[in-house]
Amino acid sequence: MSVTFPFREVIPAEHGGDLPEAADLVVIGGGVIGTCTALFASRAGLKVVLLEKGRIAAEQSSRNWGWIRVQGRDMAEIPVALEAQRLWQELDGLCDGRLGTRTVGVGYLAKSKSEMENFAGWLEEAKPLGVSSELLDAAQTKAQLGATDSPWVGMLHTPTDMKGEPWHAVPELARLAASEGVIVRERCAVRGLERSAGRVTGVVTEAGTVRCAQAVLAGGAWSGLFLKRHGVTLPQLSVRSTAMATAPLPQLVNKAAVDDVLAFRPRADGGYTLAPSAFSELFLGPDAVRHARPYLTLARQGSFDVHFRVKAPAGYPDAWGTARSWRDEEETPFERMRILSPEPNAGKVAATRAQFAQHFPEMGDVPLQASWAGMIDVMPDVVPVVDHVAQIPGLIVATGMCGHGFGIGPGFGRVVADMAQGRDPGHDLTRFRLSRFSDGSKLVPGPNL
After folding, report:
1. How far is residue 358's CA from residue 362's CA, in Å, rounded to a whole number?
2. Side-chain half-sphere of 229: how many Cα atoms within 13 Å?
3. For 10, which DSSP code?
4. Which structural domains are found in the chain, ordered by start?
5. What's the confidence (pLDDT) of residue 300?
6. What pLDDT was estimated at residue 43?
7. I need a surface site. Which of 77, 90, 282, 339 has the fewest CB within 10 A?
8. Is-contact 385 399, C-beta < 8 A?
């Protein structure tokens, strides 16, 4: 598999055609969550329309690290993540291996005893849920990675964790969904919801209205803006994360791993995906100011390396000039910026390549094939929102995946598809309820592992 990026706007849209007058379910957002929701809902017999303002997987769903992990997740996410791993394998089989999934194992690398103690605390709580994770000492860690001169004193290791190839996988899932009857439409922004007596009766797009009684909002970094236009508050922000792909290198490390500054994993084309692990950038805008209070607990922890930037660039969801309200017949922010495509942090690209070369000098130079950035949709407690929107009957929101969305996508897609049919989702979703930000509950941040 070569490194080709579906989010490049020069690539023509793949999915077009006329919209139907009506559907059973309309899914807003063609990332991994929306695409998987559409696929599983269609398999249950629903007539499904999947709408994407730009390109399928053009934003964070193709820009992430490609990890499909259970390790380090919030306890409420683990059962969904375990299901997602099983579904990834099944879907890859249906796609003849084109998703690039492979069991490589994931390692969280410690440089101190206190980090190992944190890993041990997570493992003690997670082990009863069925994870395969284990603690390895320094000698075992070096044996797994071959980095004999690195400062790692141990590792939290999950041998059954996997990786996929995001820029191939999600577009392939959309093709699978289309082949199974989902009506997929790219470059078709959703402007708003039609409602009667408060309930959803249709979805208004730039190409016309699709009547429906159920809609799913899986808009990633744009979800809060869409909900605000409909009077629903979601304290979601987005942060810029940088990543890169090396050219093919000796495959000396066949494992995904991360420490406090560096993340890496092997790719199917023989290169590695690298990233500055904890580093992210928050562009300040109206929502960053408005929602500052619920993020205070997370900020006081000091466990995330977040750097503030003066203002969000023009057209971004939280830019000062981005409209917060509009009429159904007006052009929307979703049409003005089809693809949210931030520039990578060049300094971090150079530093990350140097760190990787330092740990694995036997690979020689680390040639850069591509670098990119994405906007990760985050929540104040580092836990997604997957819930019915009480103020708008007929609307489900699945967003704020906090950088976990790619790996857990098929799991939450199956869950949301069942929610849309009124079925038991099979998992306890209490932790993911939207009302936790307004019902007086104390926000408990998920693990920063």
Report:
1. 9
2. 21
3. T
4. 25-105+160-437 (3.50.50.60), 106-159 (no CATH)
5. 76
6. 98
7. 90
8. yes
Number of H helices, E strands in the chain: 12, 22
Assigned token pair, 430: 């209490």
- Helix spans in 47-205 (H): 60-63, 78-94, 113-126, 138-145, 166-179
3-state helix, strand, coil in the chain (%, to 5): 30, 25, 45
Mean pLDDT by 10 residues, the chain (449 residues): 52 88 98 98 98 96 96 98 98 97 98 97 98 97 88 97 96 98 98 97 98 98 97 96 95 94 95 95 94 85 80 95 96 97 96 95 92 95 97 98 96 98 97 96 86
Instruction: Give the closest residue to 15 by CA, choosing from 165, 168, 169, 174.
Output: 174
pTM above 0.85, yes or no: yes
| 8 Å CB contact between 181 and 42 | yes
Candidates 236, 238, 227; CA nearest to 290 is: 236
Nearest residue to 344 (alpha-carbon basis) of 422, 205, 244, 209: 244
Closest CA to 256 of 238, 280, 272: 272
Q: Are strands 305-309 and 279-283 parallel, antiparallel or unpaired?
A: parallel
Pick from 141, 232, 169: nearest CA to 5: 169
357: how many CB neighbours lie within 10 A of its CB?
16
According to DSSP, the residues that pair with 216 across neighbouring strands are 27, 396
DSSP bridge pairs for 305: 279
Length of the chain: 449
Q: Tokens 């562009």: give the residue.
A: 283
Question: Do 409 and 61 form a contact (C-beta atoms < 8 A)?
Answer: yes
